[in-house]
Amino acid sequence: MASIAERITDSLGVERNVVAASGAVFLVGLGEELWKKFLPKYLESLGASVAAVFLDFNPVFVRIHPLEIPLS
Q1: Domain range holding 29?
Q2: N or C: fewer beta carbons within 10 Å in the chain?
């Protein structure tokens, strides 16, 4: 007789390593969202100008320059 966990994983078609990787990605994303609000104040306390912090964390600027990664 299969356990409840085995029946759920069989019906969903997921494997243990996929669940572990998905959980890790979720936790990293959650951590990023938690520190995103505090990083501008931290940068200002380190001596960054308000303009530099604004350009780094302004949503309009982030949409114009997403991660600044070349596509080639």
Answers
A1: 1-33
A2: C
In angstroms, the CA 44 to CA 48 distance is: 5
Q: Give, in order, the Cα–Cα distances in Å from 43 to each of 7, 13, 28, 30, 72.
A: 49, 45, 21, 21, 32
* Distance between start and end Cα atoms, the chain: 53
Based on the domain organization, do 22 and 44 belong to the same domain?
no
Single pTM value for the model:
0.48
What is the pLDDT, as a whole number, of residue 24? 93
Supply the DSSP symbol for 72: -
DSSP 1-70: ---HHHHHHHHHT--HHHHHHHHHHHHHHHHHHHHHTTHHHHHHHTT--HHHHHHHH-HHHHHHSSTT--
